[in-house]
Each structure stands twice: as C-alpha cells, then as structure tokens.
Specification:
The structure holds three protein chains of three kinds. By secondary structure, chain A is mainly beta. Chain A contains one helix and ten strands; from the N terminus they run H-E-E-E-E-E-E-E-E-E-E. The relative contact order of chain A is 0.18. The longest helix of chain B has 16 residues. Chain B has a domain of 129 residues: Peroxisomal Thiolase, Chain A, domain 1, CATH 3.40.47.10. In chain B, helix 3 crosses helix 12. In chain C, 37% of the residues lie in helices and 16% in strands. In chain C, strands 3-2-4-7-1-8-11-10-9 form a nine-stranded mixed sheet. Chain C has a two-stranded antiparallel ribbon with strand order 5-6. Classes of the chains: A mainly beta, B alpha/beta, C alpha/beta.
C-alpha cells in the first residue's frame, strides 16, 4: 500500500426510535408499577416465561393474552454473575473508573433468568445465593424500575 | 450432495485502523481473489456479500459495493451475518445449477463505528436494551463463568488458549499486529485488565478492519479453474433461542446441532480421528473450548485437554483464530480461508503437516446464538 | 444439480401506518400464522429451515431475527438472514427458493419471513442514511450539498424516483393523468385486499391530481404510504407441496442482477447510470428469469403480474422493462383496461406497493400475491385462471432488482 492521504470525517446521524412493546409486555410493565412480577405459563409444557410472551418457543403454540398468567415473587436464585468497567450505550462504549457487578438471577417459579446489577460485595458472591429484587422508589412501568438484586 | 469447490480466496491484512477506505479494501480482497485464481470479471455470475447496515453506518450496506465487489450485472445478494454464512448462500446458488462461479466477500471497519454499541442494538429493545446490562462484553463474562463453573475449570485453562492463539497469530503475517504476540505467557493474559470478569482483555479477539473473499464453483468448473480445489463436503447451521438467561451458556447447542448436520453430510462418525485441523471463529478464548467440545473434538469439560498446538494431535486455530483479529462479518470467512490454506499447503510458517480434512466455523449473535460449520476436504 | 421448488402457501399480517398493538416478533408471528393457516397439514416440526429479512435501519434494531427466534418457531433450527434494502422481501423469497433447491440433506421445507415495523423509526432518516456516509465525506472534499442532493434522497425515496419519472416521461410522453390513473387502479384494488394499507374504493383521478406536488411530477396523492407489516412464504419440494396444497406454485425462474451505483456517479446522483429509466439490470434479470422458466413471449405467456412500484411512473416503466408490454405503450394498457382486474393481463390487484409499503416486506408481497393468484386463494382474486405469474422488486440506488417467475407447472430447465 502506498502512502495515501485519507480523508476522515465524523458524522452523527440522529435517529429516534420508539419500540412498540406489544400487549404481553404491556401487562408485564403495568405490574412493575405495583412492584410485582407477572409471567405467563405455557399450558402444554408448563414453562413460565419472564418476560412474558405470545409464543412458547418450546411447543410453538400461542399463549392467549388473557390466560395463564402467574404472579411470581420478588425472589430468585443467582445462576451467574460478572463485573465490568465498561458501560455500553447506543452511542459508544466507555470504561468507567468503577466496576458494575451484574448477576443473572432465575426468578422463583420460572426458568428464566434476568440480568440486573447486584448490590453485593464481589468477593461475597456465590452461585446459588438467594436474591431479592430491589425496586426503585416510584416505578414508572419500565425496565429500570428494577434497580437490582440484594441478598436475602 | 453435489460437490462444491473453493477455487480461490484472498484476504486483506487486518488493521486496527486501516489507512484506506472501505471500497478499496473490498476491491483489494475481491479483485485479488479473482486474479489469484486466474479468472476474469466476466466469469462471475453471482456475488454474495456479508455486511451489516449498523457496522457500516449505512442503510443497504451493499448498495455502493456493487462495482468493487464484482457485482456489476451479476446476480447479487447479501447475507447480514458472518461471512461464513454468506458462503452458505453462495454454496446454495452453486448447488442450484444456476451459477458457475460465486464470489463471496464480507467484512467491515470497526475503526469507523462504535462496535459495542452496534452489538447492543441486537438486544431486545423492549426489555434488555434500555438498561444496557446485556451486551457483548457482559455476555462473554457470563459465558466464561458458566463454562468454568459447570466443569470446575480454572482461568489458567482459558488463558492457555489465548496464549496459543496469540503465539500462532505471530506466525500469520495477515493477523492484526497488536495480536501477534510470540512471547506472551499465561501470566500476561491473566494479569491483563478485566474485560468482564472472568474474561480479561487479552482473552478477547479485537474487532478490527478487514475484508475477505472466497470463490466457489461446481465440481466440473472447479477442476478447470484450479488443480487444488477444496471441496465443501458438509455444512451445518443452527440458531438457538434468544434470551441468554434461558440458554445453556456452558455449551453451544447451536454448534452441536450444526456439527450433527455437517458431519452427517460428510459421513464423519469419529471427529477426533477423522478431522485434521479446525479453524473456529472464537470471539473470546473460552469459546474455542466450548465449541471444540460441542463439535465432538473432546468430551464435555475436557476441552482444555485437547492437544491443539500447531504440532499437536488436533491443531485448533493454527492461524491464531479470531484472537488474531476479529473483523466483524469477515472473521468466519477468514477461518474458512485459513482451513483452505492448510489443505492446499499454503499456510507458510503455521502449516500443519498432512492436513486433508478440516472444519471451519462462523458465528453471529450474543454468545454465538447462531453457528455455522463446514467440513472441507482436499489435497489429494 | 438443483430440484423443483414449489410455493405451498403465503401469508400476511395486517398492515397499517402504526401497528402499535404488537412488538416486532409478534408482527412476524402474525404473518407466519396466516401462512400456515392455509396449509393445515404443516406443523412447525415440518419446517426444516428459515430465511428472515427486513431493512434494519427502520426499527433501530440490529439483527432482529435473533430476538424473534421463538416467535418464528425457529428455535434450534437452521436460519439465514438476507437483507438487501428495498428488495429485501424479494431477496428473502429468492433465498427461500435457493435453500430448497440446493437439496441440502434434511432441508426440504423452508419458511421465508420478511417484515418491517416502520412506525418505530423515522423513515426519511432510514432512507437518507443509504448515502449519508458517502455524502459527508464528499462534502468534506469540497462538493456542496445541493450538488449531492439526489444522493441524499437515494434508496426508494422520492428524489431518485422523481428523476426516473422525468426521464421516462420524456421518452414516452405520458401525462400526469396517466400517473393518476395507475394510482386510482391500485388504491381501488387495495380496497378489496384484506391486508392492504390504503384502501380507497372511491378514489378518482381528480382526487389524485388535486394534491400538491412533493417533487415534480409526483404529487402527494401518488406517493406510497409507510406501513408496518409482514409477509411469510412457505417453500418446499414438488412432492411435499402436493400433499400440502391443491395447487402448488412452482418457482421456475429467479434473478436479481445488480446495476452499478458509484459513490458520486453521474451528476452527483449516486449512480453511474445516466438514465435510470433504462434499467439494464432489470432487463438482464428478466432475460435470466424468463430463460430459466422457459418463457419466450412474456406478454402472451404471463397471465398476471405484481410489479413493485411505490410511485406510479415506475409501474408504467416496469411493465415495459419486464417485457409485458411494448415500450411506450404502458399508459394505453391502463387506459384501455388491459391491466385491470378483469383485463387480459391484470397488474397489481393487491394494490401494489403504491397502496401498502412495509419496505422490508413489500418485495416479498409481490411474488406472494402472484402465487396466491395462481392458487386461486388471493384476496382480490382475478376472474381468469392464472397459470403463470411474476413478482418483481427493486431497490438500492435504483440498481437492485428481484424477479420471480412462477407457474402452476414445473417448467424450470435444468442444465
């Protein structure tokens, strides 16, 4: 390759997106406002899904909108964890000074594990720990209503 | 299955920040492949590219690449996955009987876009994405921990793979300069900064600029074009379910299913003894072990025991793998190219002696949600 | 090499400007449900592989097929993603065909899904960013924005279409009334198509001409909408199709020949094509597809056509380019009712892209509707028996095209 002069330019394309959550997630987030977790259950295989959904991926059947809802407790079991300094947003990834500890917690009554920050000292973490959801003060019906998990 | 032959290839050198533009890079890869094979533009009947709109920062990322990719007045399409998947589509087009020469190319330039952000856009926008906790960085951390925890392995076991691949990359002139580490030790890898615990920075393949191209032809034409065709005797591809909290991260179900499909086609019953080398697209060192086990190259949890050095019993990633440089959309295709080089005896200082049957894999999605694997044979 | 491929079914979701009642995976699932409803003997276990595509810029989601795996019934199945901009739907359909004809062991039945939920994003930003990367660098090099204007509106948008309209109008001396007539036919057809978006059973030419210009010669009343919607097609082998449905539709010819773009191109237009109404790529595609399908005289042998035309001038241009009518005679064909529902060669009885445009899906909806017309199961079914039909798509910087030639008889020639 010869000595080339290349021209570089930085550009920012601003594009706003709004995602329709659908009627199942709608119910899910409505219950967040009450600081509760609801899930739906497949009548055929019995899997309970968090977040709830229209189709059971195992049986390939439709889960009717008004049936098979189960209320789950706030508690769960830790199945995996990690920590990182990276914070990734829609615009970039940057390395912050401190670590964020994240855990994958299987909500009791379901086989789905959800990922949220753990408010536990990293060295105290053990897989299999019992955890409980810490909700924000005033939930608005969105994913950030769950602040993280604390030890039970 | 009729025979489809790989009759040519070319790959540009990988750079963190290539000092030239996207179109020149694509042209270099594709034109080089055509020239190396002694063919002309007019011989091309179909072109399949692998690019990603978000990686290229452009809608219809293949729109302006028609000319440089050899697609002018050729039957052209685009697969938005790994380059290895684009080769699958090209292979289907050859098997249809409609085409006599397929050009497959893929690649992108992460020096021009925020790679991790574009990976974040893959996540469920109604649930995980607003928080950003599930991204390709944390996903790799979860995957490594799940694997080590399940089989009681140590970080040293994983670090050894990183050491092997980075030392192999030092023998590969096309690998990323930063990844060519001939004297690296396990200690170096373990003491590098934390990426996402327990993954450290040196265990991760760095996204870098690169484009690769491969040429496919049906049997009759392949034998006319080259005296060293490499035959695709098996292919398998498979996609798992999406939410990482509902998957088994200590193994790769999609790789296992892909292997079953590919081995079935290629009549392989005893992969450990029937396969000479493997080039696997691993975004992090631990993935190589997970994939090797899912491919039947070792029992579950015994991946670290495979003698996978270049002069070992079953060399894996003699080229350095994606740890030697991970150009998104090209990495899987480069694994195919490296496997082809081994079979044709063109792998230079990292040549494995007597390689006749190889497997090459590509992947896409968090923790390799969708895998593709090829069985390649040749070198009679 | 290769084997016959048949379409056993096609399905749609409801299309609207805002499908706010569903998430993207649920939208895709709707079309799949509609597709499989028509072939009750097919279970999800019978589907061996998937092909999925959309135009990802419109939803701000990268690789959405990963997220929607379960909703498609694709868990632990082979899946390939194909996206080519405006022609995505057609490319996905063609990929579905190739997946079956490749005869990979174990892959006989393939479900192809193409969708778009445009209301989630900003359509004009999505379209402009086809060329945004190129424009900013050229602007850096000193080329002013107004010279790059057409490049900015590339990708199935008004700017390029308007230029294509004027070059075509210049050659063929059509009037705005001719354009409005095409729109009226499409929107009235859409009114009888259950899944279409702009249903206007009483639209008149005066109504269309009474709207202001967007960009000469195209008026607001002539422009396609932006829709949310999805389309799904089931491809399989000849033997299996006969068990699934009464009239399998054979895919006899496919082509997607690309024409040049060029970053700057002629007059900053983002195309090296001097006259975008020539469409060399389309002419070559027609030659290839018709050749494979054994069609020697398109006008006589093709009974029905779904031609991708978001803007009416394109419909007139394409029916000629694809060999259905003699050059410069298209307007007359519309005026005399040849292309009407009960005409000799009906065109776009679904209302076409002019009435429903979910960009990722629309190029698949063309062969899907054409196939349903052959099966006798289309929403706005034409009275004559359809034996042979074509479905086309175009996109990119007016340089991409997809074409499928289908028939109720396997006519594909194998070399």
């Amino acid at each position: 390759m010869s000595e080339k002069i290349i021209e570089k330019t930085r550009g920012l394309v601003k594009a706003d997106f709004n995602f329709w959550v659908g009627l199942y997630m709608d119910k899910f987030y409505d219950s967040f406002e009450q600081k509760k977790i609801v899930a739906n259950k497949c009548p055929q295989c019995g899997e309970v899904f968090v977040p709830p959904r229209k189709i059971c991926g195992i049986c390939n059947i439709k889960l009717p909108l008004d049936e098979n809802w189960v209320q789950l407790s706030d508690t769960g079991t830790l199945v995996n964890y990690t920590r990182t300094q990276y914070k990734v947003t829609d615009r970039r990834a940057r390395k912050s000074k401190g670590f964020t500890t994240l855990g994958m917690v299987k909500i009791d009554g379901s086989n789905s594990a959800i990922v949220y920050p753990l408010e536990v000292e990293f060295d105290d973490i053990e897989i299999g720990m019992k955890m409980k959801i810490k909700w924000v003060e005033k939930p608005k019906g969105e994913p950030s209503d769950i602040e993280g998990f604390v030890k039970v | 299955m009729d025979k489809v032959g790989i009759v040519g290839y070319n790959q540009v050198k990988l750079y963190s920040d290539a000092n030239y533009g996207r179109y020149e890079m694509i042209f270099e890869a594709v034109r080089g492949a055509i020239d190396n094979a002694g063919l002309k533009k007019k011989d091309i009947t179909t072109v399949i590219s692998a690019t990603n709109d978000y990686y290229d920062g452009r809608t219809i990322s293949n729109c302006f690449t028609v000319e440089v990719g050899g697609g002018y007045l050729a039957d052209e399409s685009k697969v938005e996955m790994d380059g290895a998947h684009a080769m699958l589509y090209g292979m289907m087009r050859i098997l249809s009987g409609n085409h006599k020469l397929a050009v497959i190319w893929g690649g992108s330039m992460p020096s021009c876009y925020p790679y991790h952000s574009t990976r974040l856009y893959e996540t469920d926008p109604t649930w995980e994405r607003p928080n950003g906790y599930v991204n390709d960085i944390t996903a790799s951390g979860f995957q490594m921990r799940a694997y080590m925890d399940k089989y009681n392995l140590q970080t040293e076991d994983i670090a050894k793979v990183a050491v092997k691949n980075r030392r192999n990359a030092a023998k590969n002139p096309l690998a990323l300069d930063e990844a060519q580490n001939p004297d690296i030790t396990t200690k170096d890898v373990l003491e590098s900064e934390i990426y996402s615990d327990p993954v450290t920075e040196l265990m991760v393949g760095q996204p870098c600029d690169g484009v690769a191209a491969v040429l496919l032809a049906p049997e009759r034409q392949a034998l006319k074009i080259t005296d060293k065709p490499v035959w695709i005797t098996g292919v398998g591809y498979n996609q798992e379910t999406y939410y990482i909290g509902e998957r088994e991260l200590h193994t790769s179900n999609s790789m296992e299913a892909s292997a079953k499909m590919a081995y079935g086609m290629a009549n392989i019953n005893d992969p450990v003894n029937e396969i000479d080398i493997a080039e696997l697209h691993e975004t992090c060192a631990h993935e190589e072990l997970i994939f090797a086990e899912s491919l039947g190259l070792a029992e579950k949890g015994k991946g670290p025991e495979i003698s996978s050095e270049i002069n070992g019993d079953l060399p894996i990633n003699p080229s350095g793998g994606a740890l030697g440089g991970n150009p998104p959309c090209a990495a899987g295709l480069i694994r195919v190219i490296e496997a082809v080089k081994q079979i044709r005896g063109e792998a230079g200082t990292y040549q494995v002696n007597g390689a006749k049957r190889a497997i090459a894999s590509g992947q896409i999605g968090m923790c390799a949600q969708n895998n593709i694997v090829y069985v390649l044979e040749g070198g009679e | 090499m290769g084997r016959q491929v048949a379409i056993a079914s096609a399905g749609f979701s409801e299309h609207a400007s805002k499908r706010s009642d569903v998430s993207m995976p649920e939208l895709a699932q709707e079309a799949i449900e509609d597709c499989l409803k028509k072939v009750p003997s097919v279970e999800f276990d019978d589907i061996n592989a998937y092909v999925n595509g959309n135009m990802p810029a419109f939803e701000g989601s990268n690789l959405p097929e990963l997220w929607m795996t379960d909703w498609m019934g694709a868990r632990n199945k082979p899946l390939m993603r194909v996206t080519t901009g405006g022609t995505t739907g057609g490319s996905v359909a063609i990929a579905g065909y190739y997946t079956v004809t490749a005869e990979l062991p174990g892959i006989d039945t393939v479900l192809a899904v193409a969708f778009e939920q445009q209301s989630q994003g900003d359509t004009s930003v999505g379209l402009a960013s086809v060329a945004y990367g190129e424009i900013s660098i050229l602007n850096n090099l000193g080329i002013p924005y107004d010279q790059l204007n057409r490049l900015l509106s590339a990708g199935a948008a008004i700017g390029v279409a308007a230029y294509q309209a004027t070059t075509y109008m210049n050659k063929c001396r059509i009037t705005e009334e001719d354009l409005a007539r095409v729109v009226v036919q499409n929107r009235r057809n859409a009114a009888k198509t259950w899944w279409a978006h702009l249903k206007m059973p009483n639209l008149t030419i005066e109504d269309v001409l009474d709207t202001p210009y967007v960009q000469y010669p195209l008026r607001y009343g002539m422009v396609c909408p932006a829709s949310d919607g999805c389309c799904a097609m089931l491809f399989t082998t000849e033997e299996k199709a006969k068990d699934m449905c009464d009239i399998p539709v054979y895919v006899n010819g496919v082509a997607s020949v690309a024409n040049e773009t060029a970053v700057l191109g002629y007059d900053g237009g983002g195309s090296a094509q001097v006259d975008p109404s020539v469409q060399l790529g389309a002419m070559k595609s027609a030659e290839l597809a018709y050749g494979q399908a054994g069609i020697s005289f398109p006008r006589k042998e093709i009974d029905y056509a779904e031609v991708y035309a978001p803007f009416p001038n394109q419909e007139l241009m394409w029916v000629e380019k694809l060999g259905l009518f003699e050059e410069t005679t298209a307007p007359e064909m519309y005026e005399t009712g040849v292309t009407a529902r009960d005409g000799e060669l009906p065109v776009n009885c679904s209302g076409g892209v002019n009435s429903t445009n979910a960009i990722g899906a629309s190029a698949m909806e063309r062969p899907a509707t054409a196939a349903l017309q052959i099966m006798g199961k289309a929403s706005n079914q034409v009275p004559k028996t359809v034996h042979t039909a074509i479905g086309s798509g175009w996109g990119g910087s007016l340089n991409f095209i997809t074409l499928l030639a289908m028939s109720d008889e396997p006519r594909r020639r194998f070399t």
